[in-house]
């Protein structure tokens, strides 16, 4: 990562960065202070831990990266594409094809089963479906097994499962189809310390297998050691 950080050894000529942010700012309204975000470059396949106290804009930053919010100023390039140069439909397509997002509130579809929630990105993206290399259901089952979701739970509606299990299903949904970028917003908030560390190790090991870049947001600094890089958001406003 490059944000007053060590060099990654990757050459920009070889491949575009997974995430490249410059001069980024955002404001919720004319009466609110403007949030200023640090420049950063995260090479493909590397993992960044983003931390900071409440109110520093961590979730806002992820929403900007995902193209769900528009910045007041600055540029966001993902895999070499400036996502805010795209119209809304193309941004949605880019997100579906190239990004897995683990939301703080999971955003699982309550009337679908665990397996159907995991395979959902493959219904939305031909690219993700093709990348499974097999039937999406088979890929989903492998992910659910790796994340310790019992087979007896695969066909249950997610509302019948524990919060910790829902969190792992959200991670499996983000991972299916090998997206190049995963954005994770406080994804371990409902887990105890043992399950939290196991979850992160599984998430990052699966990401390593797929050369997926992970940007992981949390207020818990004890998780830092799992990641290649770390970056703190402070109270930087204008």
Search tags:
238 residues, alpha/beta, Rossmann fold, 5-stranded antiparallel beta sheet, 5-stranded parallel beta sheet, 18% strand
Describe the global form: globular
Instruction: Report the uncertain regions.
Output: 3-12
Give a short account of the largest sheet.
Answer: 5 strands, antiparallel
Q: Judging by the overall fold, what is the CATH architecture?
A: 3-Layer(aba) Sandwich
Mean pLDDT: 87
Structural domains: how many:
1
C-alpha-based Rg, rounded: 17 Å
| Percent of residues in beta strands | 15-25%
* DSSP summary: helix tally: 7
The level of helicity is 25-40%
CATH class: Alpha Beta
The fold-level CATH name is Rossmann fold
Through-space gap between termini = 25 Å
In short:
With 238 residues, the chain is α/β, with parallel strands linked by helices.
Structure description:
The strands form 2 sheets. Strands 1, 2, 3, 5 and 6 form a 5-stranded antiparallel sheet that branches. The protein has a single domain, classed as P-loop containing nucleotide triphosphate hydrolases (Rossmann fold), CATH 3.40.50.300. It contains 7 helices and 10 strands. It is of the alpha/beta class.
Give the helices and strands, then pairings:
Blueprint: E1 19-26, E2 35-36, E3 40-42, E4 47-51, H1 58-65, E5 73-78, E6 81-82, H2 88-98, E7 99-102, H3 114-124, H4 126-131, H5 136-146, H6 163-175, E8 181-185, H7 193-210, E9 213-217, E10 229-232
